[in-house]
What we know:
With 205 residues, the chain is mainly beta. It contains one helix and 24 strands. A ten-stranded mixed sheet has the order 1-2-3-6-9-14-17-20-23-24, with no helix packed on it. Strands 4-7-10-15-18-21 form a six-stranded parallel sheet, with no helix packed on it. It has a six-stranded parallel sheet with strand order 5-8-13-16-19-22, with no helix packed on it. The radius of gyration is 17 Å and the shape is globular. Keywords: Cytoplasm, Cytoskeleton. Its main location: cytoplasm.
Amino acid sequence: MSRPQAVTRRSAKSEYIETDxxxxxxxRARIEGKQNIMLAGKSVVMAGAILRGDLHRKIDRPAxxxxxxxxxxxxxxxxxxxxxxxxxxxxxxxxxxxxxxxPMRIGDNVFIGSGTHxxxxxISSHVHIGANCVLSAFCxxxxxxxxxxxxxxxxxxxxxxxxxxxxxxARVVGEVGEGWGQGGxxxxxxxxxxxxxxxxxRSIK
Length: 205
């Protein structure tokens, strides 16, 4: 897994800047602290999305002769989609009167619907999140979950694998069922909720 690479191709007709690892970043997205954001490849950040890589845990100054390592505030896996007007903000808590931010990890094949605000600690792979949701600080979404539109997940809630979640506040309202999310990655296929999002990524120009 590597950090976002330099842009290799641009098109005046395209809304997106594409990196050499296949990530597509809208020219109208707001990316803060991009050096602290890791994209694994073939992921999409749409127009109006805000990624706050500038919000990260402050590291003590390295000892003399040592080099400080890179800081990762937001880590996004492969073939994940951040839809329009989402906000991705690492979780924060107060510690000794100071704001301390914690790194956020988003897995592979995660779809985040438009207008959703995410401050989760982690979202595992093959998760589908509807529009206008709130994933509050330090919540954890396990793999193969479906979050219904307008859901508010409270702080520190842990959602078990394979759950369907809805409500304000969120509660588990069902299970996704056997076979949910299978398929969707092949040429010409339509994307499947919870499935392989590569076909969706390819379709975004």
